[in-house]
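pasting input
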Amino acid sequence: MLTSAESILEYDHSANEVRPDRLTRQTHGHYLVFAERMLAVYRRGIGSTRRDLHHRVEAICGSLEDCPLRRVRAFCKLLDEASNYRTDRRGCAAKLRRDVFSLAAPLHPLVTEPDGLFATTQERAKKLIADELGKTWSQIDEQLFSDVIEFQRLDDFPGYPGAAALLARYNVAQTQAALYRAEELSVWSRTDHKFILRYAKLARLMHSIRRNADGFYHFRFNGPASVLRQSTRYGVAFARLIPGLLSCRDWDALARLRGPRRRWYSLKLSSRDGLSSPVTAPADFDSRVEADFFREWGENPREGWRLEREADLLHHGQTVCTPDFTMIHQDGRRVLLEIVGFWTPEYLASKAKIAQQFDGSNLLLAVSHNARLVLPNTITAPIVFKTRLRPRDVLCRLAEMR
Amino acid sequence: MAFREINSTRKPCELSFDSGTLLIRGFSGDQIDRIFRRDQWRFDPRVGAFRTDALNYRNVVETLRAVDTPTPVLFDRVPQWVSIEVRGRAAASPSALKLREDQLTASKSWLATRRGCVIMPTGTGKTEVALYLIAELARSALIVAPVRDLMYQWHRRILDRFGVDAGILGDGICRVSPLTVTTYDSAQIHMPQIGNRFALVVFDECHHLPGPLRQDAARMSAAPYRLGLTATPERTDGRHRLLDELIGEVVYRQHLSQARGRTLADYHVQRIPVHLSDDEQQRYSALSLTVRDYIARRRELDPQFDWQSLCSESGSDPNARRALRAFHAKSAIEDRATEKLRVLEDLFRLHCGEPFLVFAGSNAMARDVSRKFLIPCLLSHCRKRERLDILQGLEQGRYPGIVANRVLDEGVDLPDVKVAIVIGGSGSSRQAIQRLGRILRRSRFGRGTIYEIYTRQTRDETRSRRRRANDAYQRRVDS
């Protein structure tokens, strides 16, 4: 990830909006060539020091009229991210320094011109030490500080598949860096509620959930202390949420952050922005049972019931449950269905707890017959299935519920 | 209103720690308003409970104890700290520790309230005071230091004094134990997880605490006892006033003039101007012209145009970028003027046989010095073992002297030296005092000398003048 020192933001003072730096084919098509040249610098630069590589990248960007220093540094950082540098784990440079300085100590002070009192010149001392260590001075000079980050040498460059991939990574990284300064993040979700909340939980964010009249969910993300004071403390967590969020479908997001003169600005994002996620899209179904059930039900309503996947959330405080299916009757009734296969006892216990917590919210449980045995009795009559859950059994139960 | 739903009679009342904050359950909104300080608690609809900063823990508990009307039974689930066994409490008594009178006074003032800041000049033994107080409280304690080096130094001091291998949180290590050392950055990040595991938090060099995010290291801790240590509490941004809230008020203050000559070595300052070489001067002037030209041209259009605008424009304007680059190149010439190295050589001849410290303004300059004179340089990349070798080597006379950059800015214990040579660095007053504090430790060499080499007619000179305006530099400037 980039640091704030490489972040570039453009403030639109009339709309109170802020936009992270973005290089697209339309606006910055010419960058593709330059990105390719930067990649070439690293590919051909095995053995060069980090500082030299950065200087070469700077030189390439120097011929770009519209490339600010921060953008150059951001490119260097992202290229370094995909590089392996030789790190001096065994402390060879440190040992060499110790040898050199210990040998030089009795000769102190080293002088440029010898006089009556002090006779050892710097040149002579270097010659003596080099002989003692059995190396030339230029070899010693090259190795003496080779463990300093800027003098580390490139070992290997796995890199990026191509110029477009580097620019794509750049755009996501700038968006993440912009979020470091955000104090709150809202997401409006139309499809992948479950995954968005799951990624938010992984990023250790807290949520508030509201459902709009049109059925969209509005998530407000922040952290425990946000209720006490405005803080950029959770900005890093927002940035961490981004790769996951970008892999989800059908959402809009709005972050609020303070710009010049402590004025509020909004940063808008959406799944249609064309930012590409480094995370692969979430798997379609949790289990075979679910996939089979969905296929067997089909697209058409059965006995007036339409089947939708993961459409509704059950939430209470910071506990959220996304039942696998929502069945919606044409008269407007909604019944939720959660399928429990035989997994670990911990998994079953957590499912049982959720079922208890949301008892009375029209939640139906379908339980595999071998899981049934270990499930606590407290749960009101689940639908039990053997190897696959049939729509018929569920419809049967729906009819009973009337 | 939502908080009316909380039934205060049925549920037991519970105070708990939640990610750097406190949650209280079982009180009605009315009760909260009646009992606690105005606006101390906020209702958090996300969890259905009242929330406040963990910092308020001590006040909350004290407030509840002082309430006249009986409140429901309160389960206080916050404290996870424990009593600690430090080797022989007797061995940690003031007399055994050989605390000086002033250190004892400082300790007693703090013990009266068990919170607040102790201000003593560098080299007067703040660490001793803290170790004594840790032994006195004998409960889980966290020590927060500005950098890794200082964190390890605390670890070593604790091992020497108490024979305890303290936990370390930082530098890639995450080992928390009842006595733990950490850095401000790690403390800020991890406090939501560990904020209720320590009864005492010691903030070393506590002027670092009031940064916008760093103050979370104090806000998210529930520790009822807090000790701040510093030589220089003042911050240019005025935020030091926050220390009263985050740690507590100043309980003891000793001025540099009180310590000088008594616990600190006497010293004098000698300033040596150097000129840029012809070549450097030529490049310097050309670069200055680039910067001046650009700013002048922009000011014709916009009289308000200043440095800030230049920096922000360098994004879109290649000329602004050129000007900014010229400015950085100028600074590098000032910092690394070759004449400085020549003067350094003269000083080495003059003080041959006396251990010395050179303070450089940049890592590059520190390496220049190290490469030319073949003396060790202490930089941030040095690992623990090398750092120890360099410092011990200087102390034992294995090395004639060392050159350092910012690593030694604050608090790192250094062997006694007699000569310090400043060849660059920022002009801020705190850095000046801290740096001088290094060689001011009362040493067997008696009176110390500070040399300051600066490039004439450059910004280097302005910075040097600013440094001198400070208390530490005030007396005995001979040039």
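fyi The longest strand of chain B covers residues 267-274.
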